[in-house]
Amino acid sequence: MCINLLQQKNKFAAIKILTSYTIRQLKKYEMKKTMLTLFVVLLSFSAFAQAYDVSVYQRNKASTKHLDSTKRRIQRPSHCPSSYISLGTGINNNTGLLGVSFDVPIVRYASIEGGAGISSWGYKIAISGKYYLDACHRGWAFGGGVTYNTGLKNYQQNLETVTGNVEQVSLTLNPQTNAFLAVHRYWNLGKQYNRIYLELGYSVPLSYGNKYTQISGYPLSDNSKTTMNLISPGGLIIGFGFSFGIN
Question: What is the CATH number of domain 83-246?
């Protein structure tokens, strides 16, 4: 009986030892598995980070090349043009409904401009001076000058008369001289110092006497007189145009 008890104790002890060894091995295996998993994760993250850095570098390099290429494409001459040829249009525009002008810089921030065109009051001639706030005659500019409209002979138009009817009348549009002040805004156009511009200002008449003389037909009504005064030179100036630099 004592021998049997001893044998049973030995079996229990062996089972306990075996169980303890197995648990330790499992723990070691789990530890190795965990370490291996962490190693794989870290390796993957490192590879991803390297790939991302390469991708960012390539994008930045391509972007830098694009910016350099763009700068090269829009690089302008190192000197300012000697003069400008402008095509303009607008309401009470200095050169009429459609005209051409020559803008000649006299100093770094100032220029003298002269031009001519077609208007609703005959041909129109203008001379003016401008002062620019930016170099090479860009940005904002302030100017003033004088315009001269040649007028029109035998100007025929259907207008309301004192009879209350709209009838054809014949007028002579007398020459008109005006003075004006204006604000200009110039923007770059292209890469050769060409410009587009907007002009806002006001023009006042310097001529005395009647702006027009009626040749035939019944006298004009008050409404027609107001209309003729409105289309005569003077008042609000709104101009728009393009300037082409000449080296």
Answer: 2.40.160.20
Q: What is the pLDDT of residue 174?
A: 96
- What residues contact residue 241 under an 8 Å CB cut-off, 6+ apart? 86, 87, 88, 89, 90, 93, 196, 197, 199
Cα separation of 153 and 214, whole Å?
10
Nearest to 144 by CA among 116, 113, 180, 114: 180
Name the 3-class secondary structure at 168.
Answer: strand
Nearest 5°: the CA angle 123, 166, 96 is 15
State yes or no: pLDDT of 140 exceeds 80: yes
Distance of CA 92 to the CA centre of its chain: 25
Confidence tier at 49 by pLDDT (50, 70, 90): very low
231, 232, 235, 240: CA torsion to nearest 10:
70
- Closest to 134 in 3D by CA, of 197, 88, 73: 197
90 in Cβ contact with 69 (< 8 Å): no
Name the β-bridge partners of 101. Answer: 86, 115
Per the listing, tokens 């009647």 go with: 210
pTM above 0.70, yes or no: no
Asked whether the beta carbons of 172 and 164 are under 8 A apart, the reply is no
Euclidean distance between CA atoms 170 and 218, whole angstroms = 10
